[in-house]
Amino acid sequence: MGVSIRFLGGAGTVTGSKYLVEHNGQRLLVDCGLFQGYKQYRLRNREPLAVPPGDIGAVLLTHAHIDHSGHFPLLAKQGFKGKAWCTSATRDLLHVMLPDSGHLQEEEAEYANRKGFSKHHPALPLYTEDDARRSLKLLHTARPHEAFQPLPGWTAHFSGAGHILGAASVLLEVGGRRLLFSGDLGRPDDALMLPPEPPPAADVVVCESTYGNRLHPTEDLLAELGPALARAAARGGTAVVPVFAVGRAQAVLLAIARLKARGDLPHGLPVYLDSPMAVATTELYERHVGQHRLDAAQCREMERTAHLVTSVEQSKAIAQRHGPKVILAASGMATGGRVLHHLTQYLHDHRAMVVLAGYQAPGTRGALLAGGAKSLRIFGQQWPVRAEVVQLTAGSAHADADQLMAWLRALPQAPRRTFVTHGDMDAADALRLRIEHELGWPALVPEHGSTWPA
Question: Measured between alpha carbons, how far is 170 from 161 in angstroms, rounded to an integer?
Fold first, then answer.
């Protein structure tokens, strides 16, 4: 039997990445992400996988973002018993992120049951914090460029992908085929992360396309963020910044530190990092110096920029502080987390500002705000939007269309086939067309659930 790839997520959408590789009755899953965004995508999280989790022999995780790793506790809960391989920094992040994901799901289910706004009686989490902690025992690490055997006769190795701490591309060799999974690729000019490494030769490439139809602006994050925060501060308003706890929170903190250092923002402007996960993640950058652009002193400077908020009591107390301030809180697309409570406090205030610091997937609250929504549904209620909404276009942690093409061009030889994944349909198809027209390679956007020979 030949090698095949089944696309169980990240196909025609920018979320839920899961790629099942099969050969001679053995199965391996590359990435194990939760679906986010539109309800029809989120409902897939509760559908059984196409194969029983117990029949999957190993998992390779490219990085720790929940849309690539957040399904893993459920996979383990439902019977997966193999090893899950990742880099050491990804393992450290998963020890923070997966229990937090389970905790948030428990909180949201409890709140829905208490307020009675769920259609499910009772509302149940996909998995609990305890489920997530148990799944962490299955994690195993490999160093970049170190060959390892996830299954007998299968060889894999990681290479740096930029994007966030620990992120990697994966080369998988099985059945005489070389399969390269890009993971999420970072930018060569990222302020925090090192550039993606050139890709190795492969027969088949599975490439992300989050920004497959867009180019990043020439304006940098400081030039875009500084005037916005200064404007909110000048009118005495609170700026609420939904951030991903990994990557975007640290990039915004670093930008604010530099804006204050050069006098673009008042030195005394209070900044709160209200996310236990983001606080823990920020501390990990110092542990993994050498895997990003900051030295130990710069890591400490980034931490000192904000009041680090961990407890619920501290979080609630922020609202009692009057005057201008900046609140960074997860999640980055306002799909859950403490940022929802801050939005209910400040959305109605015309002096306030919501700064959308990154990509907002269709169907998320962040996308609705970016689209000019006049109200937002949070905790079963509609909240009027009177705050100024600012969508930043700079500072993305994803490679843009030209940068994705440059990474593909660096392949030592043309692959037999390129699958374009992890992008909305317009982005994925735009990148597919560029690959076909500019590189002359066969490329396609696979459908969800489809199986292709490798």
Answer: 9
